[in-house]
Amino acid sequence: MVSYKCSVIDTFGKKHSISRSGDSRKEVIDYLKLEKYTVVEVKHKHFAYSGRIFSKKVKSKDLALFCKQVHAMLKSGVTIANILEILKLQTENRRLRDHIRSMHEELQKGHTFSEALRQRKGAFPELFVSMTEAGELSGNMDLIMDRLSKHYEKEHKIENKIISAMIYPIILSIVCTFVVFFLTTSVMPTFIEMYVTSGVSLPRLTRILISFSEFLKHFWYFIILGMVAFVFIISYILKIPDIKLKKDFLKLRIPLIKNLIIKVAASRFSRTLATLSASGVSLLSALDTASGVTGNLYIYKKVLEIKEDVRRGLPLSALLQNQGIFPPILCHMVKIGEDSGSLEEVLDKAADFQDEEIETAILRLTTLLEPVMIIVMAIVIGLIVLSMVLPMFEMVKTVR
Questions:
Q1: Which residue among 91, 108, 225, 246 sits deepest, i.e. has the most Cβ atoms within 10 Å of its Cβ?
Q2: 6-13 long-range Cβ contacts below 8 angstroms, 24+ apart
Q3: 97 and 207 share a domain?
Q4: Are residue 118 and residue 169 in the same domain, yes or no?
């Protein structure tokens, strides 16, 4: 799949700049026409590195606070323009403050709030922009902001759980790296000098470790530069659409992380769908936005396929079940929602259930990772210590 930048006009005559992915330019144009857009221009999106270091994306924690503040002031009768004027002075986060200042300037030029958001490309999620647009059309912006604040609070909690789960393995890896570096560059040379003086023959394991120690001692800066370059190159390669699609497909085949990825995607998908549907956004438009929040390109493509079948009149629950991507419980709950006419409420409950499942999946993953990391650390350090001790036995034999 390739990403395209599309300039389109909607049924209300408004011009939008949106992104779409497809196997060809023609396929993207066909999708846009099916979505009732008038296509003005479709251009191949040139790749640009957009790693997290340089990302201008507003974090879910800041979005939740921003939505809460906007909701509170809207309830008090303050206009969006005045709210942004207040928040551009009060917001502590510099990145968000800069965006608010720019949006306030756009509103003064006569643009709507949703148009100002769209112009901050990559800063605000598509869900946030779509919901704001729906709020402008329905006149329920205060309710929309309330729903969005709750949505991003829950998103932030999920992100925190995942980050917390990774802290211990990362700390262990750092400790292991420093211990190995200390042993090979500070302790080992002392033993080597002693063995060379005694003239004892060194085992193969010790000779390999000596070579590694010498290389590390004299060329450590090349190793650091090489690692940094490797990370940037891999990050660049993994963002190429075809490779990213294969990578995301393979991630769903790794037993250790498969369940966690699927549960996170299911939670985001169902909550986004519930939030959009409750705000009056059509199911087709909601599916389009919900597909982009799953965090997996393979799942994204599958959801777009589901969307096209929904357009033909097929029920969402049956399509989700046939694709077999999301957990069966989600498909079952969607079916209940369709039959009872309360799809938004059921989807919201499904998202809450998936959040609980995510917590359990994270706990299982960390419970498994911790002993594995300790065993790996023990083996690495054990080999280094063994390589230093083995020649001692030869020295004892020589003395005898």
A1: 91
A2: 6/32, 6/37, 6/39, 6/41, 6/42, 6/43, 7/39, 7/40, 7/41, 7/42, 8/32, 8/37, 8/38, 8/39, 8/40, 9/37, 9/38, 9/40, 10/36, 10/37, 10/38, 11/36
A3: no
A4: no
